[in-house]
Specification:
Number of helices: 2
Largest sheet: 9 strands, antiparallel
Distance between the termini: 42 Å
Strand content: over 45%
Strand order of the largest sheet: 12-13-14-15-29-25-24-19-22
Amino acid sequence: MENISEKFTVSQSKLMPQGLDMWTLTGAGHEARILPELGFNLYYWTFQGKEMLMEHAGLTNLDDCDYGIPLLFPTPNRVRNAVYTWRGKRYKQQKRGREVHSHGLVRDEAFTVRCWADDDAAYAEGTIHINPTSPLYEAYPFPCRLVITYALSADGLRLYVQVDNTGQDDLPFGFAIHPYFSKRGDAGNVFITMPLTRIYENDRELLPSGNILDVSGTNLDISDCLHSVGSLDLDNVYCGMTQDHCATVVYPGSARLTLRGGDAFRQLIVFTPKTRNGFCIEHQTCSTDALNLHARGLVTEAGLLVLPAGQSWCSWIGLTVEALACV
């Protein structure tokens, strides 16, 4: 199956040896590949033949969160002891008999998909429902629909997210992406910056205490200039993003990547692991363990989104790429 426009193409094939459906979007020097059966993960993206995302290493562990752009919903990041409280009721976050402590419920689930292209972009839309017939309903008994649309254009990638409350009660949720960007084999020659200087204080379990700290001028402050990824040791949730703020990744002589999200994305996680070939800059609408912070009365700190019955919420994240000339 193939749909070809003047500039952009969409094609369907199989990822072997797993035999998974794969959709490929191409155009204007970009190529992106998506796996609808594995959380609608856009697991591969190149620009002018160079990796933007960390190499996926064969996808040997298909239920992990260590490749591509995992989608984290409805409880992004970690949930203390895989238990949360909403309006006085305690819920165990468990699906298919296993506790889910982190990264939400949909990142390894199958989405239904449709793809198309026109002269300006290639598109992939993925949809997943949580309802009483879904295996996710045990962990999250709030009927809803999540719709993600990727648009690949000459400028790069843009992700549109829509959440529909299909139930009869308020829907408490958060949404995030967890992209692994490539170090391209040299963490000392990839540079990042972002504008925030306030972080969530973590307790001994690396979960938010509820306090927010100002880290201006410390080794957690990367707002002053570009810092090499190799010089950083970060795994922190920063707060205060708006759509007027952006984070930047620079591959000298190759590309500049600018990351920006809608105003709902108030948090930004920066994760620079030494032992992996990638690093993360993650737009997130809420804090880690947001439902439990909210239950403690820390409503502002939690940043939990609450959607009334029958209503929809929409936002976006943009990953804009600019080619840089070799010096």
